[in-house]
Amino acid sequence: MTSEQDALAAVLAKVGPLPNERATLLDSLGRFAARDLFASRPLPAFDNSAMDGYAVRAESCRVGATLRVVGEQPAGADLCLTIAAGEALRIFTGAPLPAGADAVIMQEEVTREGETIRVHGDVERGEFIRGKGCDLAAGQKIVTRGELLSAPLLALLASQGLAQLEVGAQPRIAIISTGDELAQPGSVPRAGQIFESNAIMLQALAMRAGALVRLVEHCPDDLERMKELFLRGLGNDALVVSGGVSVGEHDLVKPALRALGAEIDLWRVAIKPGKPFLFGRAGACFIFGLPGNPVSAFVTFLKFVRPALLKMSGASDENLALREVPARLAVEAVNDDERPHYLRGRLEGEIFTPTGRQESHALFALSRANALLQIAAQSRLPAGATVMVALLA
Fold it and tell me: Which residues contact 175 (CB under 8 A, 6 or more apart)?
């Protein structure tokens, strides 16, 4: 069996970014920048007031001083006003600072008396002024290639006057579940059947990874039907198949793929749950075969498919893995297997607790989990141990 690290390295070595595309700022949310971007203008673009109050010269402001109000500057167009010693200008938050002013005094710190104000406290130079470029300098890098584009980052780009930018493409994927034992939700299952649940889970995971799901189908254990559906799926950037990748007589995924000319690079990975994992390629389409048990499908998707989709989307290497945080283990955890085991559990505060049954079919326990803990093969972790857990949300 291939180790998890070698399997992931093999997948990522084959997969590359798709061609970039241009998108509006809003359509770029949650996608990855295709190139480095630099500020074309400083922030703020001009000295402006941080408060509603009066623009003044600090040297003129002492307790009890009286200043003559010579005008008003609202936020918006710069009126190109000027003040001299002993003068003040009514000003509002965000308004351009008049020439000659070196401070702003809050309106609460003065008393207005007709066309004058009386000052109630000393004022320091630079007080309540947002200096030009104090937040961002022109030429400063604001986006790194492969960086995830968040809402605040889009606001920063908008502040530079950008309406569109170049981003990584969203991978188009097909999802096909397999197996005679599966009935579709909304139907009446026959004796011995269970409702199919992997397709909706994998579709949701793919969408959260930024992929565009173009095809979702279920296929019975029929070689010709499987070849027909796989051929449709291979028209996408990736084909994800759940079930049928083990060694049973009804596991037809590999024969169907080989009949279509697919090259299979990986099969069977040393990971629990999820040993029967398949990775290959047919033309421009990458193929991922996941186990039929839902927890196994979930874990193998997160460990192998998700990073591949993100790399196709142009994500930088540091954005490929799930975010990990330190935690303390609530109970002892034991792994007697020869493979690393991913425990599903809940992280509440700093405490990680495994949730329910840890078998590969235990969907309810999985639904309660918000983090994964890897336990190395043949190892034991005592209660209270400090561990790193991968966040699922």
Answer: 199, 202, 203, 206, 213, 215, 216, 217, 240, 241, 242
Alpha carbons 139 and 146: distance in angstroms, whole number: 19
Q: Would strands 182-183 and 194-195 be described as parallel, antiparallel, or unpaired?
A: parallel
Cα–Cα distance, 243 to 228 (Å, whole number): 17
Do 154 and 196 lie in one domain? The reply is no
Structurally, how many domains does the chain consist of? 4
Beta strand pairing status for 66-73 and 116-119? antiparallel
Q: Tell me whether residue 41 is in a domain.
A: no
Q: Which residues pair with 285 in a beta bridge?
A: 282
Domain membership flag for residue 135: no
Do 173 and 247 belong together in one domain? yes
- Within 153-210, strands assigned E span 164-167, 172-178, 182-183, 194-195
Tell me if the pTM is above 0.70. yes
> How many residues comprise the chain?
393
* Amino acid type, 328: R
Which tokens sit at 272? 């629990």
The answer to whether residues 113 and 213 belong to one domain is no
Per the rule left: phi > 0, alpha: psi between -120 and 50, beta: everything else, 357 is: beta
List the domain range (segments joined by +) for residue 115: 48-130
Q: What is the pLDDT of residues 169-203, one digit of tens each?
A: 999 999 999 998 888 888 888 888 888 899 999 99
pLDDT digits (tens, 9 = 90+) for 338-383: 999 999 999 999 999 999 888 888 899 999 999 999 999 999 999 9
Give the CATH number for residue 387: 2.40.340.10
Domain boundary among 290, 319, 348: 319
